[in-house]
TrEMBL record:
InterPro entries: BIR_rpt, IAP. SMART domains: BIR. GO terms for biological process: negative regulation of apoptotic process; positive regulation of protein ubiquitination; regulation of cell cycle. CDD domains: BIR. This is E3 ubiquitin-protein ligase XIAP-like isoform X9. The lineage of its organism: Eukaryota, Metazoa, Spiralia, Lophotrochozoa, Mollusca. It comes from Biomphalaria pfeifferi (Bloodfluke planorb). GO terms for molecular function: cysteine-type endopeptidase inhibitor activity involved in apoptotic process; ubiquitin protein ligase activity.
């Protein structure tokens, strides 16, 4: 599987490559992601699936995480 996101962006968002496919894991919360789409934003995806990650909160702020969670809730309706 191709990872469309730049490795520098994944790293800044706390992710490291786990060694297969397009799977990455957060060094802080341990959350893993895969099946990346070309237009996925690394910070949005991290915040969407792991909103309790203290690294994301420290880097992006609680408001960012809250907005991402609100958008996720709207998309799920």
């Amino acid at each position: 599987r191709i990872i469309y996101q730049r490795k520098e962006d994944l790293s800044l968002a706390g992710f490291y490559y786990v060694g297969y496919g397009d799977c990455v894991r957060c060094f802080n919360c341990g959350g893993g992601l895969h099946d990346w789409k070309e237009d996925d934003d690394v910070w949005v995806e991290h915040s969407k699936w792991f909103p309790e990650c203290t690294y994301v909160i420290e880097q992006m702020g609680e408001l960012f995480v809250q907005i991402v969670q609100q958008l996720k809730a709207l998309q799920e309706k």
